[in-house]
Write a structure and sequence with these properties.
It contains 5 helices and 8 strands. It has 275 residues and is of the alpha+beta class. It folds into 2 domains: 86 residues; 134 residues, endopeptidase fold (from Nostoc punctiforme), CATH 3.90.1720.10. The strands form 2 sheets. A 6-stranded antiparallel β-sheet has the order 3-8-4-5-6-7. A two-stranded parallel ribbon has the order 1-2. It is elongated, with a radius of gyration of 62 Å.
Length: 275
């Protein structure tokens, strides 16, 4: 027996080479796995800010476009409301104007109707007056009536009547001008006033007053120099002078001027005698 046989050896038994390689491989694989996981986490953490940074501009642009479109739509709506309000206001104004015009036309028509009724009433009254005057004339003697009728129908005048007729005939052919009293032009009442002023008789200026300036006479019993009027006494719209022989001279209108006409051309409503 060896002297050292009883001493226990402290050396660890050797492991097989295969087992040592497996351990080393496992440790290396664990380290690599840890590094891979850490790298993946780091990559994920690094990519997140990049994604957020890339998405923000796209989001802001879309929001800006939406806000702009909303503003345009709001402005267009306001314009539409304003235009509609203006159209409605114009329609209301047109309706009011049409109503006002209709009312004015109705008032004018009513005034014309009343004026026509008044003229007809005045003409009827003047006709009755003429008839009464005619009946009174017929009650005179036959000889006096015949001589008076002969004198009134004669176109030959003497004295003041002749001067009146001569002046009027000298004015025939001159112009009719509203408001004129001669000597180159006249209106109807201006001519009558000028003619009577030649024989010293002053007459009112307008036809309405001239139609009541003397004694009312029947148109069937006229004398040279009688003033003829058209319309009713006191509101006549035209006057002329009777010159005998069934004729008169007057300033008719701007188209014809001063003319001599037969009574049948435009029968007068009445007559007044001033001399």
């Amino acid at each position: 027996m060896s002297p050292n046989a009883h001493i226990t050896s402290h050396r660890k038994p050797r492991r097989p080479a295969t087992q040592s390689w497996v351990v080393r491989t496992g440790v290396a694989g664990g380290v690599l796995s840890t590094l891979a996981v850490a790298g993946t986490a780091s990559a994920t953490t690094a990519e997140k800010p990049t994604e957020a940074t890339m998405e923000m501009p796209a989001f802001n642009a879309a929001l800006s476009t939406s806000i702009a479109q909303s503003a345009v739509a709001t402005q267009q709506t306001a314009v539409d409301y304003q235009v509609r309000a203006q159209v409605e206001e114009a329609l209301d104004q047109a309706k009011a104007d049409a109503k006002k015009a209709k009312e004015e036309a109705e008032r004018k028509a009513e005034a014309e109707r009343k004026a026509k009724e008044k003229r007809e009433a005045d003409e009827a009254r003047a006709s009755r007056t003429s008839e009464r005057g005619s009946l009174g004339t017929k009650s005179t003697s036959a000889s006096g009536s015949e001589s008076g009728s002969s004198a009134s129908s004669s176109s030959t005048a003497t004295g003041s009547s002749a001067s009146l007729v001569n002046f009027l005939r000298a004015q025939v052919g001159k112009a009719y001008v509203m408001g004129s009293t001669g000597p180159s032009s006249y209106d109807c009442s201006g001519l009558v006033m000028a003619a009577y002023s030649q024989i010293g008789i002053d007459l009112p200026r307008v036809s309405q007053d001239q139609s009541t300036a003397g004694t009312q006479v029947s148109t069937s019993n006229l004398k040279v120099g009688d003033i003829l009027y058209w319309g009713s006494a006191g509101s006549a719209y035209h006057v002329a002078v009777y010159i005998g022989g069934g004729k008169f001279i007057g300033a008719q209108n701007p188209s014809t001027g001063i003319v001599e006409r037969d009574m049948s051309y435009s029968p007068p409503t009445g007559a007044v005698r001033v001399m």
